[in-house]
Write a structure and sequence with these properties.
With 379 residues, this protein is mainly alpha-helical. It has a domain of 165 residues. The protein is built from 13 helices and no strands.
């Protein structure tokens, strides 16, 4: 009965908290960003304290340095990305038209040289070039509408005009106080935990911290590297809008497979339109993207990220889409941390179940958390 009451109370509290966050999602962005920034910079503040610098001084030095570096980065990259983005939008109808012509040419070639094979597959009817252009045009129109709708939902879902101003003003203030009082807040929350379960909760919290720190910091480094690799590499081989495509792909790399796949498709399509009928630009573009994906999959991610989160990529993609739909851009920030924390808690509960009388038919052994890991991954 006591266990049932505990489960009911904590489930009710979690439901109330989730409902409150959903209702306040429009104003959460600067606070979530500030808390995230403070969490990520806390180990650096601890290291500076070990060298003898006071916590307040460490916080000021770290935040000022971070903000100066961020402003310089924006001042350097923003004009380049904005110029290429406007040029890409202006040239999009031309690119789409040339792509339609090339696809129509490929269809006619296939009809001419592979007619017998198409007849065997039941595809003997000839498709006109106009039909192909209409189909491709409709597809591009639908894709554009979908992307604009997604951006619009993220924009208004986060109340972007208000959110942008508060992000620039409130986030540094929140990050300052979070970084300054981090240890004190953790100690206070630890004091609220029931004494009977304090050791288990601390162990779970350490697992969550390990998962979040390993993934967020590692994936940040991977995304920055891939953005620079794709952007600089595609620019050097002469691809139009290469820096914009590469940096966008690097930013999207925090979603498993999406960033690399987007860079591959968009860069090859632009290279095809730009260099047809020559193939050298396409070959070099493919080489840059392939080497980047090889480095990500075999060198960077295994060493920097590893299996720190313990979540299947499909579960991460679902979390990003679900939280992005519910909370807008704020949801994208908290999706992976929440999914990782939920994964740690659910794995703990699953281990408890596998040791419980309900599963084994015997009385549960009094072994505190962490218990033998019978299940390596969840989801």
């Amino acid at each position: 009965m006591i266990l049932q009451r505990h489960v009911l109370v904590w489930t009710a509290l979690a439901a109330v908290l989730a409902y409150g966050l959903y209702q306040l999602s429009g104003v959460l962005l600067p606070f979530v960003a500030g808390i995230t920034l403070g969490y990520l910079l806390d180990p650096l503040a601890d290291r500076m304290q070990r060298f003898g610098l006071h916590r307040l001084g460490s916080t000021i030095v770290i935040l000022v340095s971070f903000l100066v570096a961020l402003v310089l980065l924006v001042l350097i990259l923003a004009p380049i990305l904005a110029h290429q983005f406007m040029a890409f939008v202006d040239n999009l109808p031309t690119l789409a038209g040339k792509l339609q012509e090339l696809i129509g040419l490929g269809s006619r070639y296939l009809q001419h040289h592979g007619g017998e094979t198409l007849k065997k597959l039941g595809l003997s009817d000839t498709v006109s070039n106009a039909d192909i252009q209409n189909s491709i045009g409709s597809l591009i129109s639908q894709a554009t509408t979908y992307v604009l709708g997604l951006l619009r939902s993220l924009w208004f879902g986060g109340q972007a005009l208000y959110g942008l101003f508060s992000l620039l003003v409130v986030t540094p203030v929140v990050a300052f106080y979070i970084l300054l009082d981090w240890k004190r807040m953790i100690a206070t929350i630890d004091g609220w935990v029931p004494i009977e379960h304090r050791l288990e909760v601390r162990a779970i919290a350490r697992d969550i911290d390990k998962a979040l720190a390993g993934f967020v910091r590692g994936q940040f480094i991977v995304s920055v590297f891939l953005g620079l690799w794709y952007g600089v590499g595609l620019t050097l081989v002469g691809l139009n809008f290469g820096f914009l495509i590469g940096m966008t792909g690097g930013f999207l790399s925090f979603i498993p497979y999406v960033g690399s796949l987007a860079v591959m498709i968009v860069s090859l399509a632009v290279a095809l339109v730009q260099s047809w009928p020559a193939w050298d630009l396409m070959a070099m573009t493919f080489g840059v993207v392939f080497v980047g994906q090889f480095l990500e999959g075999n060198v960077l991610s295994p060493n920097l990220v590893g299996a720190s989160v313990g979540l299947h990529p499909v579960w991460i993609i679902f979390a990003l889409l679900a939280f992005g739909s519910l909370f807008g851009f704020t949801g994208l920030i908290v999706a992976v941390p929440v999914a990782a924390a939920a994964g740690v808690v659910l794995r703990f509960l699953l281990r408890k179940y596998l040791r419980s009388e309900l599963y084994t038919g015997e009385a549960e052994a009094g072994v505190p958390y962490p218990m033998p890991r019978q299940v390596k991954t969840l989801a």
